[in-house]
Amino acid sequence: MTPPDESALVRVLAADGTFAPTPEAERYLPIIDALSDAELETFYRDMVVVRAFDRQATNLQRQGQLALWPPSLGQEAAQVGSVRAARAQDHFFPSYREHVVAMTRGVDPLDIIRVMRGLTHGGWDPTDPRNGNVHIYTLVLGSQTLHATGFGMGLVFDGRCGTGDPERDEAVIVYYGDGASSQGDVHEAMVFANTYRTPQVFFLQNNQWAISVPVATQTRGPLHARAAGYGMPSTLVDGNDVLASYAVSKLAFDEARSGSGPQAIEATTYRLGAHTTSDDPTKYRTSDEEQSWVARDPIARMRAFLEGRGASASFFSEVDAVAQATADDVRVRTNELGGLDAASMFAHVYSADHRLLQEQERWLADYEATLEGGVA
Amino acid sequence: MPLAKALNAGLRAAMTADDHVLLIGEDIGKLGGVFRVTEGLQAEFGERRVIDSPLAESGLVGTAIGLAMAGFRPVVEIQFDGFVFPAFDQITSQLAKITNRHEGAMQMPVVIRIPYGGHIGAIEHHQESPEAYFAHTPGLRVVSPSTPNDAYWMIQDAITSPDPVIFLEPKAKYWMKGEVDTSERALALHASRIVRRGTDVTVVGHGAMVTTLLQAAALAESEGTSCEVIDVRSLSPIDYGPILDSVRRTGRMVYAQEAPGNVSVGSEIAATVMERAFFALESPVIRVSGFDVPFPPAKLEGVYLPDADRILEAVDRALAY
Fold this sequence. Notes:
The complex is a heterodimer. Chain A has helices spanning about 30-35, 35-60, 75-85, 100-105, 110-115, 145-155, 185-195, 215-220, 240-260, 285-295, 300-310, 315-335, 345, 355-375; strands at about 10, 90-95, 170-175, 200-205, 210, 215, 235-240, 265-270. By secondary structure, chain A is α/β, with parallel strands linked by helices.
């Protein structure tokens, strides 16, 4: 594991929740000072609610209700900070562990469940305003960085950014990880993004592990430093500090939307759970290492900070109740999910008619009809 | 006009009709592409619509996907057939599957233009016929024009298609001239077409091979054999109607293609014809293909590529049954 480069790190909250900005954090303090109590509480609520959902989903997988689950446990602060820094008109291109991003922007968590249950490859419609411009998950590592960059090029070509009006100018954020950082597509995305000056934030969650392979296998040097090679500013932030993640993302979004070109962020965090429920982290990492990150837990840190500011016990119990209700609701609705009609397999391969599929769909229907007849 | 000019005219017409059609590729701006297909278009439409991209094919297709998500209709130029493979993942795992993954909520009107095939005596990676990879991939449409008129209309129809289209341009025919009727579209994008009537053997192919089939048919006629020639035009979906009708009349079929024959488009068409017209066949369907070797050094391309003689040899074999 690469030790975080402390001298370059933006952190506001120490692991115990005390307000202790690093020197690099100084320039972000006005952004944090401008946050209201309600906003601070929202950050906390977001993290707790999604963690409860994530735990529920992990349990549902263990009980055979889902084929697979990739837990977001431990990465809540990096994601919440970045999402809350965005504006309504911004666009999100996640990888596949961004449950916090998706839910915080309005995606129904059941839509993520349906993907992992084997009912759909997508789950939600990114063009439906209720989904907060969150694109669907991409499972091939790094592919979505190019899609986000192309989308950003579209924003540039259509004059949807860089007008100087922050209420209107749009930006794009793309999430990827330390493992994906080795993919050629990420490199090509950064090349295109900088050539066409896309209004884009490259948000790298360095959760230290690509399944069983430590980040040291991906890189010898700090990942955030790669941005300089593309001519792009970058920031290293403590991804377990929601305030730092928010402030760094806020500035990056504003720079991007105003026409300053793409921005890179590396958020240092840790995947406290397994890569997916098919994984066994005890085979490749130590309990001591995990415990050292539990001690830096993003939710405990924010809770201590809020308690220090005098947040009431009733606030925390209210948040816990909301989280429990969300998790319960997901469990109930998961159990109510039905199956799939075989014809749906053919329905959307193409947007316009395709003879071969029409023939195969007819054949399958006829074949199934004969089976039903045989049974009767 | 030559086929390359017809493509240029078709691209111009599509760009004029829809200001969200844009061209992106390597060297397509000032240079007009290595085959000059986009010549003059950047001067006419500007650098925002005819875009010289960084030299990265996966990036080209991946960003074209994002542009389509943002409401554009990108037309990507891959410089040569053998250079499409760095983009293979973005084409087959992303572009082809995105509409399906979104359950129809996201259309992918992206055209990938690929100059393909041999006959130009070029170095490695510049003469290949990769159509089977794409025709095999659900979610893609694959077409190949063989005449300037088809090139003019098919590129416009590919651009207005809501689905991704792999547009295979027979580079050997870029300079081949033909009449272009800009007033009226002759045929739908995915229709196959009988290009020469005949009664004894049906000979079928796509792209540059259609010209060779016509040469073979002319030679056969001088020897007393009447060949019906069919241009498939669309490799996904394949329009079997005219092919099956023809085979039911002639009872014999030969498929000619530049690509290696193993697991090829010709194999698929041969199998389907045998499934659907078995009792009409007087002989097995015979394939004439490139050999199952990497496209050879240019000095051997004349041996590798099917020519009229190899097609006639197959016609004779079909007639011998």
